[in-house]
Amino acid sequence: GAVVSQHPSWVICKSGTSVKIECRSLDFQATTMFWYRQFPKQSLMLMATSNEGSKATYEQGVEKDKFLINHASLTLSTLTVTSAHPEDSSFYICSAREGTGGNTEAFFGQGTRLTVV
Amino acid sequence: LAKTTQPISMDSYEGQEVNITCSHNNIATNDYITWYQQFPSQGPRFIIQGYKTKVTNEVASLFIPADRKSSTLSLPRVSLSDTAVYYCLVGDKRGKLIFGQGTELSVKP
Question: Measured between beta carbons, which residues in chain B are less than 8 angstroms from residue A34?
Fold first, then answer.
């Protein structure tokens, strides 16, 4: 199947700093990418949907100024956690759908473990 | 978006067939049913997708009754490595994927 790669796999940052997480579709063009957050022992919570070349659509309760999403190309979307605090520590996962073809299966990255200290 | 309901957890033994049922009473005409598997600290992995009747691939089967208000994921002859959380998702092929609580499957020797 298609591959979605996230980088980094894990990151530790100091409180108040910003962290950028990259999500790349390696062998297909992703017109739509999704960002999720997952706390321990909980399900994935959708944060936002990003479409190439347009602004991301955030889910209710997700601060768009804190979680900046950029989908500048058909193979790359980035999530920047600005002014991170310990409560932002979580497992962040991206997902990508292929473009306009009949197969619109969603592929997931391996996730990024963020720890804010 | 159709909400899904699954058992929170299930136990099984190696070599047994495991059936996980998902309820989705409000499924819409354009909605497909997709199952994902997730291991700890990894992203979900696609298992199977279907619209109606039965779908089978190399790892699982998906049974969907005529009214489509539920579906059953069948894992034949599970092994220890099948211990994971299984999610049932319902939505159209281009929409966002909303995860429910999932079913934590524990396979014992």
Answer: 96-97
Contacts of B93 in chain A (CB under 8 A): 104
Q: Which amino acid would we find at residue B30?
A: N
Q: Across-strand partners of B54?
A: B63
Q: CB–CB of A8/A21 below 8 Å?
A: yes
Residue A64 sits at φ, ψ, to 5 deg, of: -70, -25
Percent of chain A with pLDDT over 70: 94
Torsion of CA B36, B95, B2, B20, to 10 degrees: -10
Nearest to A105 among B49, B99, B100 (CB): B49
Distance between CA atoms of residues B3 and B23, nearest Å:
8
Q: Name the residue type at position B95.
A: G
pLDDT score for B96: 83
Cα(A55)–Cα(A59) distance, integer angstroms: 13
